[in-house]
Amino acid sequence: MKNVNLSDIKVLFDENEIRTKVKEIANKLNEYYKDEEVCIVCVLKGAVIFATDLVRELTMPLTMEFIRLSSYGHSTASSGKVNAVDIKLPDLTGKNVLIVEDIIDTGLTAKFLLDFIALNFKTKSTKFVSLLDKKCSRQADVEADYYCFEIDDKFVVGYGLDYDSKFRNLKFIGYADKSVIK
Ligand code: IMP
Ligand code: MG
Questions:
Q1: How many Å lie between the centroid of ligand 1 and the Cα of residue 68?
Q2: Domain extents for the chain?
Q3: In which order are the strands placed within the sheet that holds 62-70?
Q4: Is 105 a catalytic residue?
């Protein structure tokens, strides 16, 4: 992988835009669930920053679970295969499940997880919220119920998302030109 420096990264959504959007989506979720209990399923590692900001804006009683899936390895393109690194979950039967993801790209990860939950538990409801939606690269037939921002075919980093394990801690969501990362 190419070495990418912070100076190569351009801002796509700044801290304020993200904060405003996260609150807006949280308000929609608060309205939808009212006082019903929700089990948040956060997909590590990418969604951790989004999930921790989102849950602090949610008002219903909730629990949090963390699972780890990977499809990228050391590349910027999906391998096409989803690897369930750690998918231990409690019994979600009868629960309202809200999956929190960083980005839906090909949709293979989202599809894998939705199928896994449908196969193993009879949930009361299963919803999917994603920070980003890259609709243009979809391969699997899956849509987020809620998302903060739609983006075009860019490789993005920051606010949880990484390039070669780096840049997860950026307060903004940014991108590097294709010529920089490939
Ligand atoms: P999908 O299975 O192709 O939808 O990819 C989902 C996973 O790939 C996400 O959960 C991310 O971890 C990773 N991913 C996809 N696009 C990007 C990107 O632009 N930047 C960083 N990670 C990405
Ligand atoms: Mg991810």
A1: 13
A2: 15-156
A3: 83-86, 62-70, 38-44, 96-104, 125-133, 146-150
A4: yes
44-88 pLDDT, tens digit per residue, is 999 999 999 999 999 999 999 999 998 866 677 777 789 899 999
Cα of 160 vs centre of ligand 2, distance in Å, is 9
Q: What is the residue with the minimal CA distance to atom 16 of ligand 1?
A: 105
Pick the catalytic residue: 35, 105, 152, 177?
105
Q: Kindly give the distance from the C-alpha atom of residue 47 to the centroid of ligand 2, in angstroms, as a whole number.
A: 6
Which atom, in ligand 1's list, is nearest to the CA of 47? 10
**Which fold, 15-156?**
Rossmann fold (3.40.50)
* Strand stretches in the chain, DSSP E: 10-13, 38-44, 62-70, 83-86, 96-104, 125-133, 146-150, 156-157, 173-175
pLDDT in tens, 9-36: 999 999 999 999 999 999 999 999 999 9
CA distance 149 to 123: 27
- Determine the average pLDDT of the residues in 112-120: 97
Report the predicted TM-score, pTM, of the whole model to 2 decimal places.
0.96
Write the residue with the smallest CA distance to atom 22 of ligand 1.
Answer: 161
